[in-house]
């Protein structure tokens, strides 16, 4: 994680983004988190260290990170956006019961991109794929 943080800090420096203690804490939290937190989750986790930081500060900094290509925003209909600092090609499994999001890897879906381009005429610039179901913890609790 330390190497990933150093790379992110270097990238921010090249884009002219000033590194504040709050930005450092938010970015570190995201890089350490495997839970795909919401902005509120991040705020609640950091508010004891930064009592003057607001939820708006968290959102504004997340926007900076998204624009810098360091963080991906995951939107799911009406629910709060979730944030992911893992910018590698990977996909998400989402629990219908508790909302947990887990990462998984799969060979790149280039055939799907090509079919989409051919059938729609779009120049495909990216895609997002999720699978939905019930996580192991929720499946176990519904057995009882």
Automatic annotation (TrEMBL):
Residues annotated for Zn(2+) binding in this entry: 95, 98, 135, 138
Cofactor, free-text remark: Binds 1 zinc ion per subunit.
GO CC terms, sorted: cytoplasm
GO terms of biological process kind: negative regulation of DNA-templated transcription; regulation of secondary metabolite biosynthetic process
Keywords: Cytoplasm, DNA-binding, Manganese, Metal-binding, Repressor, Transcription, Transcription regulation, Zinc
Cofactor field: Zn(2+)
InterPro entries (UniProt xref): FUR, Fur_C, WH-like_DNA-bd_sf, WH_DNA-bd_sf
Cell compartments where the protein resides: Cytoplasm
GO molecular function (one): transcription cis-regulatory region binding
Keyword Transcription regulation carried by entry: yes
Recorded family membership: Belongs to the Fur family.
Name used for this protein in its record: Peroxide-responsive transcriptional repressor PerR
């Amino acid at each position: 994680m330390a190497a990933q943080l150093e790379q992110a800090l270097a990238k921010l420096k090249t884009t002219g983004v000033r590194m504040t203690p709050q930005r450092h804490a938010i970015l570190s939290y995201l890089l350490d988190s495997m839970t795909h937190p919401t902005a509120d989750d991040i705020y609640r986790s950091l508010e004891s260290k930064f009592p003057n930081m607001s939820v708006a500060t968290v959102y504004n900094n997340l926007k900076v990170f998204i624009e810098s290509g360091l963080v991906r925003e995951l939107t799911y209909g009406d629910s709060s956006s979730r944030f992911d600092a893992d910018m590698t090609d990977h996909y998400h499994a989402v629990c219908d019961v508790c909302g947990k999001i887990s990462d998984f890897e799969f060979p790149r879906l280039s055939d799907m991109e090509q079919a989409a381009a051919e059938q729609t005429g779009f120049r495909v610039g990216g895609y997002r794929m999720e699978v939905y179901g019930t996580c192991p913890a929720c499946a176990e609790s519904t057995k009882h």
